[in-house]
Design goal:
alpha/beta; Rossmann fold; five-stranded parallel beta sheet; 11 helices; 9 strands; globular; binds aspartic acid
């Protein structure tokens, strides 16, 4: 028997915009680096390269035209907020910025995080959230029907910073496996250290943790490093690591996390990376910092080609462009 196949009245394929594969990230919240295996990292990094090339050639595109990002920051931010805004705008999208303005929003009237999120999702396709409480971004994401991206949850995680940090290491040194990476400063409260360390457990790296006793890496994260079988050592002294570090990842002592300010005063100025100190470092290595710096890296380091922190800043925009495109299904 012959069957007739009727022509469809509508070609729905032309109506429904195709959702490209984006390594499983479409529609996903970005809460923790534990969501990124090496395949996903490779995907985001290759997209970030494309973004860099596009920005270099034409500055912006309309990939995310019609999409709106709500940027909600309950803690101060310069780079994370500005780079998310720049990322969205360079991709042709728009932004509702409640960044420096939480004090002018209904949050200051006592509105809960849940209600604020439920409101913003009525307008926006994706929400970027920074909040002082660890775990709060996951809670917000549970309320929201649009993807929520963690821009720092207290002393918990800062996953997009870790992605840009790892990308920077790869870009600067051409590899991650085999490197000796030293983290210096506030390893206890520094969420960027927490996220980057977790991410690095997927690589064959040696880790060196340099901090005063009271700012040592939390035990749960140290256990992840040990379980991953990495070569790891802790010390109080930068002199122990400066000679053979490939990456010196320097961090600010997180004053806002101390309940006892006298304790902060004791540890705030313990480490300062100077050009004199760097004479003892390898020729091929990089100094990184998530910024802001408040005395941990002397300005005389800035002209050293190994100072990568402002290149790191720029990479943040490309990584966030790649992430926004992926989460919004625009691979
Ligand atoms: N900007 C980074 C953060 O938000 C590092 C810092 O504040 O010291 O965690």
């Amino acid at each position: 028997m012959q069957t007739t196949i009727l022509e469809p009245l509508f070609n729905f394929e032309n109506l429904v915009k195709p959702v490209h594969h984006s390594n499983g990230l479409t529609g996903q919240d970005i809460i923790s680096v534990s969501q990124f295996d090496r395949a996903r990292l490779a995907y985001i990094f290759s997209r970030a390269h494309e973004m860099r090339e596009m920005v270099g050639r034409v500055g912006s595109t309309d990939l995310l035209r019609g999409f709106i990002l709500a940027c909600l920051f309950y803690e101060p931010s310069t780079r994370t907020s500005a780079s998310f805004i720049a990322a969205m705008e360079r991709l042709g999208g728009s932004v509702i910025p409640i960044t420096q303005g939480v004090q002018f929003s209904s949050v200051s009237k006592g509105e809960t995080l849940a209600d604020t999120i439920r409101t913003l999702e009525q307008y926006a396709d994706v929400i970027v959230l920074r909040h002082p409480e660890t775990g709060s971004v996951q809670i917000a994401a549970d309320y929201a029907n649009v993807p929520v991206i963690n821009a720092g949850d207290g002393i918990g995680e800062h996953p997009t910073q870790a992605l840009l940090d790892l990308f920077t290491i790869q870009e600067e040194l051409g590899t991650i496996d085999g490197l000796k990476i030293a983290m210096v400063g506030d390893l206890r409260y520094g969420r960027t250290v927490h996220s980057l360390t977790k991410l690095l457990t997927q690589y064959r790296v040696s880790l060196r943790f340099v901090s005063p006793e009271i700012l040592r890496l939390p035990l749960v994260i140290m256990n992840e490093v040990i379980d991953a079988g990495l070569d790891v050592r802790e010390t109080h002294d930068v002199a122990d690591v400066i000679g053979d570090a490939d990456v010196l990842y320097v961090t600010r002592v997180q004053k806002e996390r101390f309940s006892d300010l006298a304790q902060y005063e004791e540890v705030k100025n313990l480490y300062e990376i100077t050009s004199e100190l760097l004479t003892k470092a390898k020729q091929k290595m990089v100094v990184m910092h998530p910024l802001p710096r408040v005395g941990e890296i002397h300005y005389n380091v800035d002209s050293d080609p190994r100072a990568a922190y402002f290149r790191q800043v720029k990479n943040g925009m490309y990584i966030r462009m790649a992430l926004l495109a992926a989460v919004l299904g625009k691979a």
